[in-house]
Each structure stands twice: as C-alpha cells, then as structure tokens.
C-alpha cells in the first residue's frame, strides 16, 4: 500500500510544500495511517 502514499505525495508536491513536509515526517516516523485531506487535492 506504500505506492498509494507515493502517489499522494506526488500530487501534494505540485501544490503544497508544507503538506509534503508533513507527509514526509509521517513517513519518517512510520505513521502510514496519516491521511491528508483529499478534498485539498
């Protein structure tokens, strides 16, 4: 399921650096349950 997070990360990279950092931090700590608000995409 990790590919799903990479896909989300790619979408955010084009739109919001801060959210990308949050996703990066969540991945770093192994918190794969982190789900960004999809309506912001």
UniProtKB/TrEMBL annotation:
This is Uncharacterized protein. It comes from Candidatus Jettenia ecosi. The lineage of its organism: Bacteria, Pseudomonadati, Planctomycetota, Candidatus Brocadiia, Candidatus Brocadiales.
């Amino acid at each position: 399921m990790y590919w799903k997070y990479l896909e989300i990360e790619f979408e955010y990279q084009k739109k919001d650096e801060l959210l990308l950092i949050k996703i990066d931090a969540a991945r770093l700590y192994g918190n794969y349950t982190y789900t960004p608000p999809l309506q912001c995409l």
